[in-house]
């Protein structure tokens, strides 16, 4: 009897329990793994109030110690997000990453219809949760859904059509395979590196003026020759650090399951009548432009043959036909790009309490369970 009484005192005597949540998730640099759930301690299902987990680099495990009241029942989920900042200095000075960030891009989150559950009544005062491993196929809790526009904007660039890339300077009879790669550029920072040329053609002047009126950036940021002759391989052409945008994901509709993924260094093969999209989330679309690099992928090693820029336009939908320049700044062709902006609906309050799974997933799971087949999907992280 004394032993039973001591166990009850050990489990139920303390009004709080210290719980260490642990999870292993393949992740990219700059992304953070978070824990959100019911109750003030877990953020009340609000991603802005979630608990940020810390990476144990030695074991590649994300951990988070939370003090939970007892006896209580908590439901929770894990998710992966990217905090975005208007300035680099803000990223270093803020203490609360999620609440102080300029924007949060939700990349992946658990979309199981039944949330995870923990009962603090049966736990000791300090308890380490079993490690949840999402790097392998893991029971029915491996169902993950890509995030939605929480408080950021998404820019989608589409390369499609019969001849989206036109290279006019090739010798007669020579055909090459072309690849394309897209890089986000901080045009607000780039505008401080160069000034507007003193002499502009009439056509260019009208274009610069129209673009300048569409955004709040200085007119110097709309200099097409910002990476002109002599600067092709200099630092000005390399990726500018853009804390207000996440990684850019590429997807290609080529007859197989189309899943957005990170780009390869040599670009993706672009053939006529193909459909390629580049997606990126940002909290400052007015300052975000893009650099497109054109590669010759006919050989084993890709060769960079040209580049062009898509400037911040400020329209929710547009189609642009921009010039492609070679290393010496000469025009070698055209690139046609469709741009589409997505913004969150501020009046629509969405949290992570409900999974929002579509009918197909639920119906498919039900059918497979009745047939005796376990419905298991491994997480697909880029």
From TrEMBL:
Top-level taxonomic group: Eukaryota
Entries under InterPro entries matching the protein: Carb-bd-like_fold, CBM20, Ig-like_fold
Pfam families the record matches: CBM_20
GO MF: starch binding
Domain CBM20 per the UniProt entry, residue ranges: 11-111
Protein name according to UniProt: CBM20 domain-containing protein
């Amino acid at each position: 009897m004394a032993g039973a009484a001591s166990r009850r005192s050990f489990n139920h005597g303390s009004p709080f329990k210290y719980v260490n949540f642990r999870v292993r998730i393949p992740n990219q640099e700059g992304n953070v793994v978070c824990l959100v759930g019911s109750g003030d301690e877990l953020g009340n299902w609000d991603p802005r109030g979630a608990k940020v987990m810390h990476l144990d680099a030695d074991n590649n495990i994300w951990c988070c110690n939370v003090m939970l009241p007892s006896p209580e029942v908590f439901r929770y989920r894990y998710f992966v997000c990217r905090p975005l900042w208007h300035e680099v200095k803000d990223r270093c000075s803020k203490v609360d990453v999620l609440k102080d960030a300029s924007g949060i891009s939700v990349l992946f989150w658990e979309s199981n219809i039944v949330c995870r559950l923990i009962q603090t009544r049966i736990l000791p005062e300090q308890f380490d949760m079993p490690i949840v491993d999402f790097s392998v196929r893991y029971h029915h809790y491996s169902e993950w859904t890509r995030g939605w526009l929480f408080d950021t904007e998404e820019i989608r660039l589409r390369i499609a059509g019969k001849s989206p890339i036109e290279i006019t300077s090739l010798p007669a009879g020579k055909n090459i395979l072309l690849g394309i790669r897209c890089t986000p550029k901080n045009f607000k920072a780039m505008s401080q590196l160069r000034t507007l040329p003193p002499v502009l053609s009439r056509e260019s002047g009208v274009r610069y003026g129209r673009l300048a009126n569409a955004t709040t950036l200085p007119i110097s940021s709309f200099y097409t020759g910002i990476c002109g002759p002599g600067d092709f391989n200099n630092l000005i052409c390399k990726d500018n650090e853009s804390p207000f945008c996440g990684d850019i994901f590429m997807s290609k509709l080529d007859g197989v399951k189309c899943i957005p993924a990170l780009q390869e260094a040599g670009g993706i093969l672009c053939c006529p009548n193909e459909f390629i999209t580049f997606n990126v989330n940002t909290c400052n679309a007015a300052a975000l432009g893009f650099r497109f690099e054109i590669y010759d992928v006919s050989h084993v090693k890709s060769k960079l043959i040209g580049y062009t820029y898509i400037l911040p336009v400020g329209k929710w939908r547009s189609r642009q036909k921009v010039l492609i320049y070679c290393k010496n700044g000469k025009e070698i062709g055209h690139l046609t790009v469709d741009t589409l902006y997505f913004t969150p609906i501020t009046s629509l309050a969405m949290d992570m309490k409900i999974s929002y799974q579509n009918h197909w997933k639920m119906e498919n799971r039900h059918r497979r369970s009745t047939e005796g087949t376990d419905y298991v999907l491994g997480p697909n992280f880029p």
